[in-house]
Amino acid sequence: MAKNIPGLKRGWSYREGTAGSGGLGLYVDGLMVAEYENYNDQLMITYGKSLTGVPQGIYEESATQNYDIGTKRVVDDMVFHYCQAEADSGSTYKAIQPNRAVVTKHIPVTASAVTAASVGATTITATVSDVAANNYADGYIIQQNSPWTQNSKLRIKSNTTTVFTLKDPLVLAVGASDSLHFSKNMYKDVGMLETNATGKEYHSWAAVPLLGVTAEYYFWGQTWGPCCVQYGVGTPHRPGESPSERSFAFDYYGAAIYSSDLLAAGNAAGWVIPNTWGTWSMLMMLRLAP
After folding, report:
1. pLDDT digits over 11-27, tens only?
2. How far apart are the first and last CA of the chain?
């Protein structure tokens, strides 16, 4: 049953008993855009809906995809995004990388692989390796126009093996001498570095899982708020071990490390929440994506 609530914009309504929640759903012109639930006496807002009608908690993994990859969920003061583990994820309680396998990272397209497209077009045709139907959906294309004076970021709606449909029309024409860089949704094919191999030590981090994740399963990865972050074996300085060592980053393997001890490039990830007078703590304020 729809509820007309004073102050809502025209076309907006709340309905009870949404699929997969039993709570309230926020609808805009008949399209549900968010679910509101009581989750263990905490307000939980999911910015999207269950694709299957099956709810999935933040401490659950699933072999079936129940939400769009990257869907945002807020539970009390914590933020999560819906992720899929890669085939060899190794992700257990440590931070995980977006698109960890080398072949799924940014892919430059040579001039001969790009089909010209005009301003206003909503598709780009290109030959890219490692492409399957919709495995770049909700990812990005970075367009660089020759002679490298203009660029544009494009969001991918869907894709075949050669045609990428965009969420918004082109604002720059695509020419045969342009460069396009393709990137999957950062929450797809996430995983953890197993060895500090040359060329793999510099990377970003997507989220921190709250459970051990099975390869290719779907789960909620935490990206913001109070979080328990695991330390690695042999960590030089655990965050908070000295009173001034309160900030942390992630090392090669996704373990928390005092930020100034980080030898390789990495993300500054947050700080220790409790006061620290020579006592380290695993309770961190995680700051990856709000």
Report:
1. 544 455 444 444 567 66
2. 32
Length reported for the chain: 290
CA distances in angstroms from 255 to 220, 249, 287, listed in the order given: 19, 8, 15
Q: Which helix (H) or strand (E) holds 166?
A: strand 163-166
For residues 101 and 86, is the Cβ–Cβ distance under 8 A? yes
Write down the residue that tokens 């309770």 correspond to: 283
CA distance to 197, 238, 277, per residue, from 261 (Å):
19, 10, 19
What SS3 state is found at 221? strand
Over residues 238-252, mean pLDDT: 74
Query: Long-range contacts for 194-201 (Cβ within 8 Å, ≥24 apart)?
Result: 194/88, 194/90, 194/253, 196/252, 196/253, 200/102, 201/252, 201/264, 201/265
Tokens coding 256? 């928390």
Using DSSP's 3-state secondary structure scheme, residue 111 falls into helix
**Residue 153: both structure tokens together:** 């970021």
Query: pLDDT, tens digit, for every residue of 101-145?
Result: 444 444 455 555 778 889 999 999 888 777 889 988 999 988 877
- Amino acid identity, position 52: T
**Residues 167-198: tens digit of each pLDDT:** 999 998 887 677 788 888 989 888 876 555 55
Give the distance, in angstroms, between the CA of residue 222 and the centroid of all CA atoms in the same chain.
Answer: 9
CA distance 75 to 79: 6
**Identity at 261, one-letter amino acid code:** D
The Cα–Cα gap between 74 and 51 comes to: 18
Q: What residues pair up with 226 in beta bridges, in sequence order?
A: 285
